[in-house]
Amino acid sequence: MGYDFKVIEKKWDEEWKENPVARTKPTGSGKKFYCLDMFPYPSGSGLHVGHWRGYVLSDVYARIKWLEGYNVLHPMGWDAFGLPAENYAIQNKAHPKVATAKNIANFKKQLSEVGALYDWSKELNTTDPEYYKWTQWIFLQMYSAGLAYEADTEVNWCPVLKTVVANEEVVNGRCERSGALVEKKNVRQWMLKITDYADKLLEGLDRLDWPEKVKSMQRNWIGKSEGVEIQFEVSGITSPDSEEILKLPVFTTRPDTIFGVTFIVMAVDHELAETIIEPSQQKAVQEYRDQVAELGEKNQGDKLGVFTGSYALNPVTKDLIPIYFANYVLKEYGTGIVMAVPAHCQRDYEFAKKFDVSIKPVVQCPGGDWDGAYEGDGTLFNSGLFNGMQALGEGRKKITEYLAKVGSGKKVTRYRLRDWIFSRQRYWGEPIPLVHCQKCGVVAVPEKDLPVTLPDVEHYEPTGTGESPLASIEEWVNTMCPSCEGPAKRETNTMPQWAGSCWYFLRYPNPDLSDEPFSQKDMKYWMPVDLYVGGIEHAILHLLYARFYVKVLYDLGHLPFNEPFKRLFNQGMINRYSEKSGQVEKMSKSKGNVVNPDEIVEKYGSDVLRMYILFMGPPELDCEWQDTGLEGIKRFTQRLWRYLTDEKNILNDAGEEDVTAKKRTHRLIKEVQERLGAFKPNTALSACMEWLNDMIAQKMRISKKNAESVILLISTMAPHMASELMERLFDKKLQDCQWPTFDPALTQVDEITIPIQVGGKMRGTITVGANEKEQVIRDLARKAVTRYLIDKEIIKIVYVPKRMVNFVVS
Ligand code: ANZ
Ligand code: ZN
Residue 760: exposed, middle, or buried by beta-carbon count in 10 A (0-12, 13-18, 19+)? Predict the structure, then answer.
């Protein structure tokens, strides 16, 4: 009889709904395992198979730990604030709450098909006022610790979303979400001092069991660099706000090359730019500005620049060197001004060639001459007192000391990381819980008045003026100052979507707690998260922000740990061939290559989809979806079902299991456990397939105990089928079983030693597994006697299975 997934999966889905088996035990009940998925944004388009890839993977581990007897917390929730719901509301004139609730209902239905061990009693939703009350509370903790501040700064403004976006949300000058070119605009903002945590965020990385790639992305994003700030006097120009001679500060990591500085380059939008430009160069500078603007994003790294007409003094050589504007200098990094050393920095070299500036080498390249700029280490020359020193050793040290002594340089540490722009001028987010009072200034909303709930509005449209739509709701905006009780106005900016996801993992152990965001007892027991599964796209955004929040809460005494996620796993993407483009690409609606999991579940069942996703390839790599792959998995489930439900194959209690069959099954347990442990579910599943082939081909029968072990292994990947088999064969439920173990003695592969002859003479032996393939044995045998085969022609190889290999030679 075949396996009827439709009936059986429905039966178990209903059973699990009525009697949830995934209920987390109370805090403190034995060993714990906190298995977390990055919670989804409940979009209108529903779950796709890419979501499934992460959820199925995490569920495999939750199921292993569950069978191992751990107290497992495997929760699910909704990251439901954010722009798409708001945009949908604008188009459909519906409250974002309504669309969000509808989407959540749909997601939940779709998620129930995954058959994962979710404890739905832990469900949370970031847009629930009882949740965002605590998101606001955390903000207030930061505010009173001086970590949140207001600034009228130049920010990234997305003209499409009509809101400010964070630096982390800008990729190659474009808004990551809308794709629009980001503009610079001065808007009053709330900022979080994430830069205060740059060092802590860096140090913590070393202790995490995370993919190296993510750690290095975070390191680069923080971008710590230790260098020296050196002052260059400008000849004949005084500072705009004093009578003193103007000094330009530069940031360099190579003070050792100071004798080779032959010009200065700065960003044209630098605040000192206007002061520097000589009247005679005004026109040329304007042309340069136009040129840069015109080239805009099309610029492929062309070095553009213009002479300012001014000169600076090299503080050590006292040479007058020209000052240029150049587009390769970033205004936001370092001081926005660079000392250019064309002999030892490739960018400066290209610029110097183009603008005909002199090039002065000061570091000897150990191998002799060098084409272009030599950026490595070597002995200093042309460097006065410092000649003969190792540039990056003594030279750098002594020159830094010298510059400090004469007052033109000081050691500084720079970070690429900028403070986090934390406010958005949109409706669908957490209101920032502050009020502005004319008398008292900015006042925090007292904890007893939290949450500050979002009012209902008629128009969700962003105003585009830099003000949130909340600003027009007078009844809401006008309030009483909590401090002097006089009239005050509420802050109308909302928090960015990241706010809710920075701490949701702290709330899952008890999402209904009413007088605290989380309890210390829960925190001690459940945290940190043991396994966190999600996409690599969050490498610097969510994963950096969440670490920052946890470190702040730790420093403020609210948490007993300072890293939230012990182990991180990033699943790769699922790509698929697109008829439209003729290429294998990321799934997207516009490419018409999206796979809807509901349809696959309908046609093949949830277990087949789960197994196919696990089988597609190493889970950390991108992989290609192929419809035919599902058929192969379907055949495997049918064969497995037939084998295990055929009474002939299962021995009764009196029956003696054949040693070969027993060994084969113990080897399977070992292989599956090792491979799953190493995050290689694809090879664990192929081990199951090979096992089944062997059992069927060799007509092996299996003991009840071993059949149960096999069902348990399979239950991590195909929980519906495994539950049904367990019930039919043994009248047991998965939750009453234990993760199988194997006898190591039984998993040893027998070895045999085979003599090798050349022309009938014994020339060596090889030792191989008893079941080694013939081709492997032939290859090994040839290698073992190579030196006897030189100059000989092999006429024939005689292989007597398991006994002898003989090379017949001429
Ligand atoms: C002189 C020099 C000589 C440099 C040399 C390099 C090599 P990291 O390590 O990434 O911090 N720099 C400084 N500010 C800059 C800006 N706003 N825009 C573009 N480039 C800038 O890089 C530090 C180096 O980047 C600095 O050291 C500076 O060039 C350049 F043989 O100074 B260097
Ligand atoms: Zn007041």
Answer: exposed
pLDDT digits (tens, 9 = 90+) for 459-476: 777 777 778 889 989 999
* CA distance linking residue 470 with residue 463, whole number of Å: 10
Pocket around ligand 1 at a 6 A CB cut-off: 225, 251-254, 257, 329-330, 333-334, 336, 338-339, 341, 344-345, 375, 414
CA 138 to ligand 2 centroid distance, Å: 22
Q: Which atom of ligand 1 is nearest to the CA of 328?
A: 19
Q: From the CA of 251, how far away is ligand 1's center (Å)?
A: 7
Gap between the Cα atoms of 581 and 583, Å rounded? 5
pLDDT tens readout for residues 479-507: 999 999 999 999 999 999 999 999 999 99
- Write phi, then psi, for 193 (nearest 5 degrees): -80, 65
Terminal Cα distance for the chain, rounded: 59
How many A from CA of 494 to the centre of ligand 2?
A: 22
Helix (H, G, I), strand (E, B) or coil at 245: strand
Asked whether residue 71 carries a pLDDT value surpassing 90, the answer given is yes
Ion ligand 2: protein residues whose beta carbon lies under 5 Å:
437, 439-440, 481, 483-484
Give residue-wise pLDDT tens across range 603-642: 999 999 999 999 999 999 999 999 999 999 999 999 999 9
pLDDT of 300 over the 70 cut = no
Host H or E run for residue 130: helix 129-144
Using an 8 Å Cβ cutoff, are 671 and 680 in contact?
no
H/E stretch holding 763 reads: strand 761-769
Q: Give the C-alpha separation, 260 to 362, whole Å.
A: 6
Distance 438 CA to ligand 2 centre (A): 7
From the CA of 669, how far away is ligand 2's center (Å)? 69
- Number of Cβ atoms within 10 Å of the Cβ of 177: 17
Measured by CA distance, the residue closest to atom 2 of ligand 1 is 254
Tokens of 347: 């960018």
